[in-house]
Amino acid sequence: MKKLLFGVAYYDEYMPCDRLNEDVKMMKEAAVNVVRIAESTWSSVEPQNGVFDFKHIDRVIDVMEEAKISVIIGTPTYAIPTWLVKECPSVLAVTKKGQGIYGARQNMDITNPTYLFYAERIIRKIMERVSKRKCVIGFQLDNETKHYDTSGVNVQLSFIKYLRNKFPNINDLNDEFGLSYWSNRINSWEDFPNVLGTINGSLGAEFEKFQRTLVNKFLSWQADIVNEYKKENQFVTQNFDFEWRGYSFGVQPKVNHFEAAKCLTIAGVDIYHPTQDLLTGSEISFGGDMTRSLKSDNYLVLETQAQGFEDWLPYDGQLRLQAFSHIASGANSVMYWHWHSIHNSFETYWKGLLSHDFKENPTYNEAKIIGYEFNKFGDKLVSLQKKNDVAILVSNEALTAIEWFSMTLDFNYNDVVRWMYDELYKMNVGCDFINSDSCNIEKYKLIMVPALYCVPDNLLERLNTYVENGGNMVVTFKSAFTNENVKVSYNDQPNIINKCLGITYNQFTKPNNVYLKGHDFNVSIEDNKVSHWMELLKPTTAETIAYYDHPNWGGYSAITKNSYGTGTATYIGCFTSKAVLKEVLIGVLKDSNQFGQEQEYNFPIIIKSGYNLENKKVVYYFNYSAQKQTIKYMHNEGTELTKNKTIIKGEEVLLEPWNLIIVEENI
After folding, report:
1. Does residue 8 belong to any structural domain of this protein?
2. Cβ contacts of residue 637 below 8 Å, gap of 6+?
3. Which of 141, 277, 330, 520 is the most buried (most CB within 10 A)?
4. Is the peptide bond before 273 cis (omega within 30 degrees of 0)?
């Protein structure tokens, strides 16, 4: 891409009145250069079986084309029409809750042949209509696609075929999954029970892994159809989302993004986050780093909040700060959900750039500033290439397995992932994400491994070799405990990587009034407290960084560091405070030569950088706070793009609340 995309989702079919021309006029005033349409229009485009009406799509494309605004077309398959359910009720997904009932979106069985027949027909009809239009630059497959817990008879039959392929001998399945327990042993494939009732974590986790493969297959199937029609210069994307906690939080449990992204030409993402006094930028950064890592390339932000929902109305300056935060992570677009605030139904108060009165407001006016700046110097920021030396290893399988064998009811895998990621973010350490299939782990100088509970032996061997050959690694509790089938190892724990970690343990518990001692961290007494999980570590070759401070557990190590080959491996055997984790990470970063000038600043000053199309370094300094911050510019002399003036190394800069500077270095 040669320019940044700045845009909105636009729903002509939701409008209470005809104002398309007025909307386009206001879009042009805000320098909006792209809209996303059609993704939720199935019942409008096909009001009855085989009856098609493209007026909403046609009129929007016609007007956008004349206005020179690009269009992204979404396939409408995530929200099915009433007639389809009335004629073919089997298209609704059967889940653990029973047969689905029509009403909500994303309620269908994505494997159902009848659903796929009608979905293919509507995709082809739309593609025939729009693919040759010159303003159409790309296509979005479905919307935030997941498996929707589909688990009807057809899905379970496919699961049995999947298992028979993995375990040709049924006895191997029984032995590997431990199905003799409580007489769950399956002695004939014909006797395979309804998997929704299983109490066996290995079988349950394998079914969820299988369900994630359904998403890969579904998106790949759609991509194949779209590819028959699209022009060479049109892209195919998907708007991935994350575990939802009222905002985008962690690894998505119902999609393996790394696998699902393989059919796309460019990855896309939806990122929503707290704002006002709770705005930190961490969700923007997490979602961006994750999505950029899927294809090791730039990505599209297809949805993010404008005014948003409940307390998401941004303070002055925050919308602009957020927009450039997306770009600083490697995004090539910022697109709001959505243009206007709708007047009926479920998302009435999930507000867009415009409120219900369609008039100018402070959020829209700030969007005009963003659009102006994207136009003015966006060519210096587009297709930013990141060069990170730190990676976080994430695993859908570990996430699922820990759900089956949770540490505590209020604490899961993503809590550990974000615990580690957020501290690195606040210390201005750029990160990529990798998974168990990543072939390039050796290129990183430091790998973070949060709660890798479920993991194949070959990956653990790779991690041993990585450290032995000079890599640095930080591993947390609940790692390397089971194999890929959630079968607990009977070797010393952590399995296999105890070699590079230099520790072992065979007991663990939930801490109660347990603190840390024996370290030199500069933290308060309260910050010394550990929570949620603790393992009683016994070093073999590792040195102890911290012990447990407790009358019964005081002889056990809590945090260790081990030299192995020419590398170093650190193990954190308990959930510590953020302050302790930060101290541990500072030590690791210094040992691995990753503690540089950018680590002199911490949150709320966030520093991001990358290389633009001219191979010049672009550096962002963000102030994520309501207070003015005085900083010293520490990079090479360059041009501060927002003011178009020279800035020199060592120059003092006053950052206003929720503001930023962007510098393109001269060399």
Report:
1. no
2. 646, 647, 648, 649, 665, 666
3. 141
4. no
> CA-to-CA distance for 106 and 99, rounded, in angstroms?
14
Q: Alpha-carbon distance 553 to 560, whole Å? A: 16
Q: Are residues 497 and 419 in the same domain?
A: yes
Query: What sign has the CA pseudo-torsion 613, 614, 616, 619?
Result: negative
Are 572 and 584 contacting, i.e. CB atoms less than 8 angstroms apart? Answer: yes
Same-domain pairing of 419 and 555: yes
Asked whether residue 73 falls in the same domain as residue 222, the answer is: yes
Residue type, 471: G
Whether 456 and 508 share a structural domain = yes
Residue that is last in its domain, among 193, 215, 237: 237
Least confident of 142-146, 300-304, 309-313, 421-425: 309-313
Nearest to 285 by CA among 569, 515, 17, 620: 620
Cβ(496)–Cβ(438) below 8 Å: no
Q: Tokens for 306, please give them.
A: 């404008």
pTM above 0.70, yes or no: yes
What's the per-residue H, E or C state across 415-472?
Answer: HHHHHHHHHHHHCCCCEEEECCCCCCHHHCCEEEECCCCECCHHHHHHHHHHHHCCCE
653 and 521 co-located in one domain: no
**Residue 409: pLDDT band by 50, 70, 90 thresholds?**
low
Is the C-alpha dihedral spanning 113, 116, 118, 124 positive or negative? negative
The residue out of 544, 562, 593 marking a domain boundary is 593
Residue 516 one-letter amino acid: L
Dihedral-angle region of residue 276 (phi above 0 means left; psi in -120 to 50 means alpha; beta otherwise): left
pLDDT at 657 over 70: yes
Q: What is the pLDDT of residue 389?
A: 96
Q: Are strands 660-665 and 239-240 parallel, antiparallel or unpaired?
A: unpaired
Do both 573 and 626 map to the same domain? no
Q: What are phi and psi of 632, to 5 degrees?
A: -110, 120
Mean pLDDT computed over 54-73: 97
Q: Under a CB-based contact definition with an 8 Å cutoff, are residues 631 and 638 in contact? A: no
Question: Which residue range is the domain that position 623 belongs to?
Answer: 604-665
3-state secondary structure of 640: strand
| Claim to verify: residue 444 and residue 368 sit in the same structural domain | no
The gap between the terminal CA atoms of the chain, to the nearest Å, is 23
Residue 601 tokens, joined = 């600043």
Identify whether 260 is part of a domain: no
Task: Look at residue 232 and give its three-state secondary structure.
Answer: coil
Residue 257 domain-assigned (yes or no): no
In angstroms, the CA 239 to CA 252 distance is 12
Q: Are residues 443 and 584 in the same domain?
A: yes
> What's 627's domain CATH number?
2.60.40.1180
Total domains, the chain: 4
Which residues are CB-contacts of 510 (< 8 A; sequence separation ≥ 6)?
407, 408, 532, 533, 534
Note whether residue 6 is domain-resident.
no
